[in-house]
Design goal:
The chain has 257 residues and is an alpha/beta fold. The protein has 10 helices and 8 strands. The protein has a single domain (8-59, 96-254), classed as Rossmann fold (3-Layer(aba) Sandwich), CATH 3.40.50.300. The protein has helices at residues 20-34, 51-55, 63-75, 81-94, 117-130, 146-149, 167-183, 201-209, 222-230, 242-254; strands spanning 8-14, 39-43, 97-98, 103-106, 136-140, 158-163, 188-196, 214-219. The chain binds adenosine-5'-triphosphate (ATP) and magnesium ion. Magnesium ion (MG) is lined by residues 20-21, 45, 48, 50, 140.
Length: 257
């Protein structure tokens, strides 16, 4: 498959607990196995940073730790401001952990109380600059609308909203689309319905009503539950598992712009 745009920046978002991190991991596996794009994963969830564990790749430092170091060096005057400014790119690149299949950058948790704005501003800048070194960037977002409202994922090509088979998660998808229309310059938006089992036609009707394109249906998969139970990294899920097969089948459609 030839990408229509490089880098292709894809945000995976949705209500809490619907399976954003699981879906990000399965898409990452499908891309690295079958398309070999130069792939960057961004764990942008400051409160539940689980992507590292799922894909078995943990950076030495998060972006927030790097930001805190820079602030500390500046305040304590351990280094000249000029020198610090010149090294920022280098420091950020150090936060990217590489493996043979993909790289990973973790946003981390802002230290102490206070406004998230500086973190988000940095995050937005880093996403914009670092993405240019990759072909595909997958961002596992924080639950809900915050990162869209705060324009963290302003320059994103594709927004994949994950829902489960609950109306509440579809209502969140609707709000995310409305926020994205206001605050983001996305190229395409669509929904992945996760944990599908039995009849979920009312979910499909709601998606139609809200004009949310349904891109893929991923089944409830006992292997995912088993991996969770054993604390195993989902990236090693067998290729013949139901959920991975479905993601693989749809990955080209998911990356279409
Ligand atoms: N297709 C599936 N089949 C079975 N279990 C699943 C499936 N998708 C997700 N789960 C389970 O649902 C739970 C939540 O998944 P996940 O952590 O990916 O959600 P999330 O949206 O990233 O959550 P958060 O909002 O906390 O970041 C996990 O325990 C996971 O194992
Ligand atoms: Mg998550």
């Amino acid at each position: 498959m030839k990408l229509k745009k490089i880098p292709l920046v894809v945000a995976i978002t949705g209500k809490g607990g619907v399976g954003k991190t699981i879906i990000t991991t399965l898409i990452a596996k499908a891309i690295s196995k079958y398309f070999k794009y130069k792939l960057l994963l961004i764990d942008a969830d400051p409160t539940h940073p689980h992507l590292s564990k799922m894909v078995n790749l943990t950076p030495e430092k998060s972006l927030e730790e790097i930001r805190a170091d820079i602030i500390e060096k500046t305040i304590s005057k351990k280094a000249q401001v000029q020198e610090i400014a010149e090294n920022i790119d280098f420091e950020v690149y150090n936060a990217v952990k590489e493996s043979k299949d993909f790289s990973l950058l973790s946003i981390g948790q802002p230290e102490g109380p206070g406004c998230f704005c500086p973190s988000n501003a940095l995050l937005r800048k880093v996403i914009e600059s670092i993405s240019n070194d990759f072909e595909v960037v997958l961002i596992d977002c924080e639950a809900g609308l915050e990162q869209i409202n705060r324009m963290v994922i302003k320059s994103v090509d594709i927004i994949l909203i994950v829902t489960d088979i609950s109306i509440r998660s579809v209502e969140t998808a609707k709000s995310i689309k409305e926020a994205a229309n206001k605050f983001s310059n996305y190229g395409r938006i669509g929904v992945i319905v996760n944990r599908v089992k039995g009849d979920f036609s009312n979910i499909v009707s709601k998606l139609n009503e809200y004009r949310l394109p349904l891109l893929a249906e991923i089944p409830e998969d006992g292997i995912i539950t088993k991996f969770d139970l054993e604390g195993k990294a989902l990236i090693t899920i067998p290729e013949d598992s139901l959920s991975f097969q479905k993601v693989k089948e749809h990955v080209e459609k998911l990356l279409e712009i």
